[in-house]
Structures are given as C-alpha cells and as structure tokens.
Amino acid sequence: MSDLVSTIIANYNYWIYITLMMIGLYAMIAKNNLVKKIVGMNIFQTAIILFYVSIGAKRGATIPILEHAHNGHGHGAASHMVHAVDYINPLPHVLMLTAIVVAVATLGVALALAIRVYNRYNTLEEDEILAQIREK
Amino acid sequence: MIWQLDLAILTLVVIAAIGAITIKDLLGAAILFGSYSFMMCLLWSIMGAVDVAFTEASVGAGVSTVFFVAAVFRTSRRTKD
User: Fold this and answer.
1) ipTM score here?
2) Which of A39, A61, A97 is closest, CB to CB, to B52?
3) What residue ranges of chain B have pLDDT lower than 50?
4) Residue B36's domain spans which residues?
5) Angle at B19 between CA A102 and CA B39, to 5 degrees
6) Is B81 within a domain?
7) Cβ neighbours of B40 in A, within 8 Å
8) Which among A4, A12, A32, A124 is most buried, taking Cβ atoms within 10 Å?
C-alpha cells in the first residue's frame, strides 16, 4: 500500500497532465460557447504534447547539444566519446514540434469556421444556433 | 530538472487553464490562454526541450493569441458560460 502511494506521489506530473487533459475534454463537451470549445481543444492538445515531452526528460542530463563538437583540432571526433546518458532524449521533442504546428493550423481553421458561423447566425452560443436551425 | 519549480509552474498552468474556460469574457479567455501557453513554454525549458519551448513561445503563445483576439473582435465578446 505504501509503495503504491509513493509511486503515485513520485509520478505527480502524470496526474497533473491527466487533470489538464480532462479540463480540456470537459470544455470541449460541456461548454456552450464555440470559442470556449476551441480553447478546450487547445488545452487538450498542449497536455498531450506535455506528456510526450516529459517522457524524454531525465534527471542529471543536459540539453541535447554536443559539447566540444568543434574544438578546432581537425578530425578529432572519434576521440570524444558521446555518452547518451548525459543528454535528454530529443526524439519526442522533434515529434512534438510537428504537433505544435499542426495545433496552430487546426486553431486557425476552427476560428475561421466560428467566424463563418457567427456571420450566418449572429451568435456564438451553441444552443441558440441549434434553436435557429430547428426553426427553419 | 528542479521538481519544486516544476510543481509550482504546473499548479499555475492548471489554474490558468481553469480560468480560461470559466471566465465570462472571451477576450479575457484569450489573454488567459496566452499566459497558459507562456507558462507551458517555461515548463518545457525546465524539462530541457528548448526547441519545443521557443516554438511554443512564438507559435503557441504569439500567433494563437493573435488569432483568438482577431476572432473575438470579428465576432462578440459576450458568453453565457
């Protein structure tokens, strides 16, 4: 029991990421305003990106840039051993860089659609839009 | 990675997220979302993902906030929830 509790406390960051994800999901499902739904979608996306980046992080390591890569001694690259333990894993970073760009493209399309909806129905509230659609 | 700083900024991020979806003004939601993105970028630079951090600072916080503010000014600021 105590080692279960210590596992939960040691992985506190995962619980906070899940909380953030659920905040975003709640906003997408339960909020009535279209812009609030789009904010919720963005919070959900950032929580997933945060989860992936935290997988690559490790204690006692530095950023993934080689030290002494160009020290002016010609072709001495083989003399420096590169220890992968000393560097943070950059693979999740590269994947999530793509996800950020996709997220901002999704946001642009979603806001453009929201503006079109506002121009047609003159409101951003979902229940009023649905009521206007039912009247026709 | 300093876990005290990590936990403090994670708490602020959760507060900013809850504030962004509960505030009764869409312009305020856009600004709170911008602050959420900047704190997220701080979190990533703590984790050592500097490339992701500066992409988020320019694209996520900068361009997203501009998009939100432009959309809010083209529509309306009022919201019921």
Assistant:
1) 0.93
2) A97
3) none
4) 3-74
5) 55
6) no
7) 46, 50
8) A124
pLDDT, tens digit, for every residue of A9-37?
Answer: 888 889 999 999 999 999 999 999 999 99
Q: What is the pLDDT of residue A69?
A: 63
Cα angle for residues A36, A106, B32 (degrees, 5° grid): 35
- In angstroms, the CA A54 to CA A45 distance is 14
Are residues B56 and B44 in contact, defined by beta-carbon separation less than 8 angstroms? yes
Residue type, A95: L
For residue B56, tell me if it sits in a domain: yes
- pLDDT tens digits along A55-94: 888 888 888 887 766 655 555 555 567 778 888 888 999 9
Average pLDDT over residues A95-124: 93
**What is the distance between the alpha carbons of residues B48 and A16, in angstroms, rounded to a whole number?**
19
For chain B, how many structural domains are there in total? 1
Contact A50 B67 (CB under 8 A): no
Yes or no: domain A2-63+80-135 corresponds to CATH 1.10.287.3510: yes
- Residue B80 belongs to a domain: no
